[in-house]
Amino acid sequence: MMGSSGFLPSGSLLESLVHLSNEASSIEKLPFVQGRNISTMTRRIKVLTSLFEEIKEANSTATQLPPSSVLCLTELFSVIRRVKVLIEGCKDGSSLWGLIQTETTSNQFFVLVKEIGRALDILPLSLLNLTADIREQVELLHKQAKRVELFVDPREVQRRDELLKVMASNNEKNMKNAANRCSIDIEAAKLVFSSIGLRSSLDYEEEMSKLEAEAQKQAGTGGLIVVSNINNLVALVSYSKSMVFSEESKKDDIKQSSVSVSRNTDQSSSSQSMSFNIPDEFRCPISLDLMKDPVIVASGHTYDRNSIAQWINTGHHTCPKSGQRLIHMALIPNYALKSLVHQWCQENNIPLMECSSNASESEINSKQNAAQKAVDHISTTKVAIDSVKMTAEFLVGKLAMGSLDIQRQAAYELRLLAKTGMDNRRIIAEAGAIPFLVTMLTSNDPRIQENAVTALLNLSIFNNNKILIMAAGAIGNIVEVLELGKTTEARENAAAAIFSLSMIDDFKVAIGAHARAILALVGLLREGTTTGKRDAAMALSNLALYGANKVNIVVAGAVQLLIELLMDDKAGITDDALGVLALLLSCPQGLEDIKKSRALVPLLIDLLRFGSAKGKENSITLLLGLCKDGGEEVTRRLLINPRSIPSLRSLAADGSPKARRKADTLLRLLNRYCSQSHNPVR
Questions:
Q1: Measured between alpha carbons, how far is 611 from 604 in angstroms, rounded to an integer?
Q2: From residue 377, how far is each of 188, 214, 223 by CA, in Å?
Q3: CA atoms within 13 A on the CB side of 681
Q4: Partners of 500 in the beta sheet?
Q5: Beta strands at 64-65 and 8-9: parallel, antiparallel or unpaired
């Protein structure tokens, strides 16, 4: 288009522009970061939308526009597509990282507005049939775009500076003494986080997930410093979350009976430790002394192991801080806090024997030497991994012993924890979560079932977990959820789990051999949402790679259903459906069922012209297979369609290498058939 001369076809370009600009300007709720720039940009895009719609309407009877107009519209399409990506990044990405990058992102909006102005420079308004109102709006937009200035929201700059101050106090690279580690202003951090929408524990969790995703994204482009800064943000949010949401419980008085327990603790250790300014978060709430071996109880609060053990051994079954009844007596090590306590001891020259009564002198020396040699980002990663281990063990304890409400929440948190990071998925499996999650698939509670199957889906992304899930006998329960799941999302994610598990060849056989697995997938293909249909089609495509499964898929009635879905504009799974049909073609039963459809051949011919690259390849595969193995009837049907030969010639010239080879083969086959009939293809 850019290299053509004269007048150019423009209908599809205008339709794409209208669709894209509507998407880019349809944001319902402004994000907390870049709100002003996004609001201004969407207003500009709406003006352009009106322009595109009017050009489209005014030129509905024409097929061409002046070349300069098409060049302008093509450039605007490129700019608006980048605007859409930028807005989506602000809306869906990490708010904290967006705050750090506020000047960079503001400049991106500024550059895009300038590019809109440059594109409008070549728009010949005088040659377009526009109303005076639209012409005036576009001219005003053009002038504004030409003289626009960079806008960086001063409120965001202030929040960014406050965040950087809080980060500096929490940055392990700058921690030279205890004061740096413990001088974090939690109220200041809470204020900054609240200003960008982080107000609940779930908000904090989601922000950490987004930061981790950003770190992975930046790993190949941003460099180690950027990734390190993002990891520091993750650590800050995690630490602040634990402090902010335990602040209220910290204000509670320790019960009188807990004070009596404190009198029984090691007095000599206490007196020595009290000579230091011990951070409050490192003190045991019972003994008020430095925690030597911090452990987490069922309520989620942390205590020193000796103190809480004495509390429990004296007959108490409640949490000393909250008064909540403990649903189990397990003491789960708080590895993350223990690591921080040890680091604090090292920085203050407190012998590690003070912090770990079981550590031998040689062990202490080796730990000190390791700590001195450790690189900051490695120690940060270790703390993060230890934190995941602690969290996973704690949540598995809740799955094992908790009430329905507690199990529901624990399964949801495991689902989120397994959503990102192979390390997370490995650690959760090592904590023993998989057997409990498999059992919960049969729960009568809709949310427990949904969270359990989604957690297993996320865990299955790690290949070794696929083996563990199958070894736990999960396939029967997953198929039951697929058939009778209590929520739509549970059924969809069960299908996605089958797709993930069937990536391993041996499991294709095992899943296909299950009496109801394929029937259940075909049922979701028939009844599900677009997402469900796609998940089911992808799972069937994987299973169909094993020959014996193809017959079962055909017997389940998949062929006619897939053809119907090809004709359903709302189904949205054209490529997936074509892929399954192409696989079933190699099965005699599948070929017979496919041949029965008289609507398929015309549909495939149209897909040769208008389908995606993948869709064209599967369409030509189906046509070639039908003509080779389907007899003269299919060949005649193909030849009497006036669009078939032009479509095949076009694909033979412009398709992918695979599609070109098959198109050439089919053209030769048709020509041979016509030669035998004394009417060659021209």
A1: 9
A2: 25, 16, 13
A3: 23
A4: none
A5: antiparallel
Average pLDDT over residues 561-575: 79
- pLDDT tens digit string along 607-635? 887 777 888 888 889 988 888 876 777 78
Strand ranges (DSSP E) for 34-82? Answer: 64-65
Strand positions, DSSP E, 505-640: none
Structure tokens belonging to residue 463: 């290949």
What confidence tier does 201 reach under pLDDT thresholds 50, 70, 90? confident
Q: Choose the weakest-confidence range: 69-83, 211-225, 476-490, 644-658.
A: 211-225
In whole angstroms, how large is the CA radius of gyration of the chain?
32
Rounded to whole angstroms, how far apart are CA atoms 577 and 403?
A: 43
Q: Which of 73, 70, 11, 66 is nearest to 48 (CA)?
A: 73
Q: Quick check: helix, strand or coil at residue 57?
A: helix
Tell me which H or E stretch contains 272.
helix 267-273
Task: Give the integer Cα–Cα distance in Å for 675 and 461.
Answer: 54
Cβ contact 518:495 at 8 Å: no
Say how far apart CA 96 and CA 231 lie, in whole Å: 12
SS3 10: coil
Task: Tell me if residue 9 falls in helix, strand or coil.
Answer: strand
Question: CA torsion angle for 613, 615, 616, 622 (degrees, to 10)?
Answer: 150
Sheet of strand 332-333: strand arrangement: 302-304, 294-296, 332-333
Distance CA(400)–CA(402), nearest Å, equals: 6
Q: Which helix (H) or strand (E) holds 117?
A: helix 102-120
Distances (CA, A) of 446 to 66, 487, 488, 532, 535: 59, 6, 10, 17, 20
Q: Assess contact for 402 and 327: CB atoms under 8 A.
A: yes
Question: d(Cα 282, Cα 273) in Å, to the nearest integer?
Answer: 11
| Mean pLDDT, rounded, for 134-147 | 92
Contact in structure between 47 and 138 (CB atoms under 8 Å): yes
Enter the tokens of residue 284. Answer: 């045991």
Report residue 296: phi and psi, to 5°: -105, 135
Is-contact 135 54, C-beta < 8 A? no
Cβ-based neighbour number of residue 15 at 10 Å: 12
Residue in the structure block whose two tokens are 């709302």: 570
- Residue 540 has, within 13 A of its CA and on its CB side, a CA count of 37
Nearest alpha-carbon partner for 118 in 151, 139, 137, 146: 146
State if pTM tops 0.70: no
C-alpha distances in angstroms, 616 versus 418, 599, 610, 654? Answer: 37, 17, 8, 11
Which residue in this structure is represented by tokens 């290498």? Answer: 657
Between 649 and 388, where is the model more confident? 649
HEC profile for 291-342? CCCEEECCCCCEEEHHHHHHHHHCCCCECCCCCCECCCCCCEECHHHHHHHH
Angle, CA of 4, 10 and 12, to the nearest 5°:
120
Rounded Cα distance, 603 and 599, in Å: 6
3-state secondary structure string across 85-97: HHHHHHHHCCHHH
Helix then strand count (H, E) for the chain reads 38, 5
b/e per residue 21-56 (b: at least 16 CB within 10 A): beebbebeebbbbbeebbeebbebbbbbbbbbbbbb
User: Tell me, what's the pLDDT at 351?
Assistant: 67
Half-sphere CA count of 247, side-chain side, radius 13 A: 11
The conformation of residue 290, written as its DSSP 8-state character, comes to B
Bridge-partner residues for 318, per DSSP? Answer: 325
Q: Is-contact 159 193, C-beta < 8 A?
A: no
